[in-house]
From TrEMBL:
Keywords: Calcium, Disulfide bond, Glycoprotein, Metal-binding. It comes from the Eukaryota. Gene3D superfamilies: 2.60.120.200. GO terms for molecular function: metal ion binding. Its cofactor is Ca(2+). Residues 1-129 form the Pentraxin (PTX) domain. It comes from Tetraodon nigroviridis. This is Pentraxin (PTX) domain-containing protein. InterPro entries: ConA-like_dom_sf, Neuronal_Pentraxin_Related, PTX_dom.
Length: 130
């Protein structure tokens, strides 16, 4: 992830949000790893993410499938997005961040998913480890 822009970085699940304590405005690439489980407390407790939903990346969504606000959109570059159905170990996260290994997500894998680009986005080749 490079240059998130002026908006705070947030994780939103089922209309609930948490602001991540991250600032990335130095023009360099950053590795970001976030874990969440739908049990317990804090963000969307006891909420399961169900199959067949819509995953929106880089834009806060006011209603299902629409009402996007350009002032709430991601500005910057993003690469190698991965989602797993489990929490990675500290060692796995470190190896991923330092390019000692390349794990692919079992839920979403950047290289395998077809992505619909909207709003003037461009897909460019990039290897985050080189």
């Amino acid at each position: 992830l490079i240059e998130w822009g002026g908006n705070p970085m947030e994780l939103l699940i089922s209309d609930e949000a948490v602001t991540l304590p991250v600032t990335m405005t130095d023009g360099k690439w950053h590795h970001v790893c976030v874990t969440w489980k739908g049990s317990g407390q804090n963000l969307a407790p006891w909420h399961a993410i169900k199959a067949g939903g819509v995953f929106i990346l880089g834009q806060e969504q006011d209603t299902m499938g629409g009402r996007f606000d350009v002032t709430q959109s991601f500005t910057g570059q993003l690469s190698d997005l991965q989602f797993w159905s489990r929490v990675l170990t500290t060692n796995e996260i470190h190896k991923q961040a330092t390019c000692a290994s390349h794990l692919t997500g079992d839920v979403v894998s950047w290289a395998e998913e077809s992505v619909e680009l909207h709003g003037g986005l461009a897909e460019l080749p990039f290897d985050p480890c080189h």
